Amino acid sequence: MKRERDELTVPPDGGAGDQQPKWRQDFPIDWPQDHYISRRDFTKFMVLTSLAFAVGQFWIAVQNFLRERRGELPLQKIADVDQVTVGTPVSFAYPDAHDSCLLLRTGDQTFTAFSQKCTHLSCAVVPQPDKGCFFCPCHEGAFDLTTGAPIAGPPRRPLPRIKLEVRSGAIYASGVELRTI
Amino acid sequence: MKKPFSREQRLTIIYGILCIVLTIVMLQLWLLIATMNAYLGGDHSVVLPAGLASAICLALNAGLLWYIFRMERRR
User: Fold this and answer.
1) Within 10 Å of residue A164's Cβ, how many Cβ atoms?
2) Are A51 and A128 found together in one domain?
3) Residues A13-24: tens digit of each pLDDT
């Protein structure tokens, strides 16, 4: 029977280490073998983690595929031009009933609209026209009122901009522009 | 027939494989975060190449794991 150089303990049946039952091989007494088993099992766990990351990537690809299948977003009336005044945001939902957005009149004939979901953890941002920002109360994030760019706190991406169209005295939402900077 | 590796040799091999696997997993983590950030920011062009890169990383890791199993079978 051949033994390893650092194989110190002898199994109860006196047999070779690799002839022992699986459970005994997985819980060795000798330190060198224990090091080997623990690192091997950690490697297995890391490969499982690698699988989880690959599944995550696949999930993003599936979401992207479903988004492409949905096609263009519908045109939706928000309000009449006369109903929106400077400094008073108008709340609306676009493209779905659960996607809150805010419409702002920034000038005589200029309007901007942003999604109300903070790009950090999706809390609803609160417009603060006097401070020139959208404020997120959850983690004290802030976005510029006119551009939607992050100016304070944890958010790194700007607020999604809602594409607007003005047709015969009414303001319509026609799409969502996602941005990284 | 090849001579099976000794326990010391196997430990050295497992350390080497673990280093490579850890590096690849870190790369995959970075790839996933970067892809998620780009996707949520409206940059959809990176999704498929990043997915492919992650699948290749997984294949590399699975290959290394398969090598460990093969090494143990040969004992």
Assistant:
1) 16
2) no
3) 888 777 888 888
Q: What is the mean pLDDT of chain A?
A: 88
Cβ distance B7 to A53 less than 8 Å, yes or no, reads no
Q: Which domain holds residue A84?
A: 76-177
- Give the residue from A126, A122, A119, A121 showing the smallest Cα distance to A157: A119
Task: Chain A: give the shortest CA distance to residue B17, in Å.
Answer: 8
Residues A112 and A48 occupy one common structural domain: no
Looking at the fold, whether A66 and A84 belong to one and the same domain comes out as: no
Give how far B71 is from chain A: nearest CA, Å.
12
Query: For residue A15, what are its two tokens?
Result: 């047999």
Residue ranges per domain, chain B? 7-73
The answer on pLDDT for B34 being more than 90 is yes
Q: Which residues of A touch B14 (CB under 8 A)?
A: 36, 39-40, 43
Q: Give the CATH number, domain containing residue A121.
A: 2.102.10.10
Q: Report helix angle B47-73 to B7-40, nearest 10.
A: 170
Put simply, the answer to whether A42 touches B24 (Cβ < 8 Å) is no
ipTM value greater than 0.95: no
**Is residue A82 located within the same domain as residue A169?**
yes
- Confirm whether A38 is domain-assigned: yes
Determine which of A5, A43, A66, A119 to mutate to test the interface with B (most B C-beta atoms within 10 Å): A43
Q: How many domains does chain A have?
A: 2
Give the torsion through C-alpha atoms of B46, B51, B54, B60, to 10 deg. Answer: -130
pTM of the model: 0.79
Please indicate, yes or no, whether residues A47 and A80 belong to a single structural domain of this protein. Answer: no
Do A99 and A116 fall within a single domain?
Answer: yes
The half-sphere exposure of B41 on its side-chain side, counting CA atoms within 13 A, is: 20
